[in-house]
């Protein structure tokens, strides 16, 4: 829709340039509201309008690319945050398992020393 509006604006601009160029050809006088630097050659007016349209299209494409890249950056940031949260969850699980393993190791150590002590007491009582 915007492209059609831009094309209509460009066509109106070209028609105005043609009219001005035709008037300039007939006489070399300037009217009150006319710009002396205005394009006199209708072909130059077409080229200027075409270049203007190309520049607008390029600007639109560039803005679309910038928006696409911004969207990708935002998506990557969101994914990065999600991965950070997942890493934190994994770190918490690892800490809990280490604590549990340390607790089990201490319990096994205590049981082993208790067993050793009982065996020693049994041997001592048998030798008496």
The quaternary state of the protein chains shown equals single chain
Number of H/I helices: 2
Instruction: Pick out the low-confidence regions.
Output: none
- CA-based shape: rod-shaped
Which structural category do the helix and sheet elements fall into?
Answer: mainly alpha
Helix-strand topology string? HH
Biggest β-sheet: count, sense, barrel? none
Task: Give the terminus-to-terminus CA distance.
Answer: 108 Å
Radius of gyration: 43 Å
Average of pLDDT: 83
Q: What is the helix fraction of residues, given as a range?
A: over 70%
In total, the number of strands is 0
Number of domains: 1
- Strand percentage: under 5%
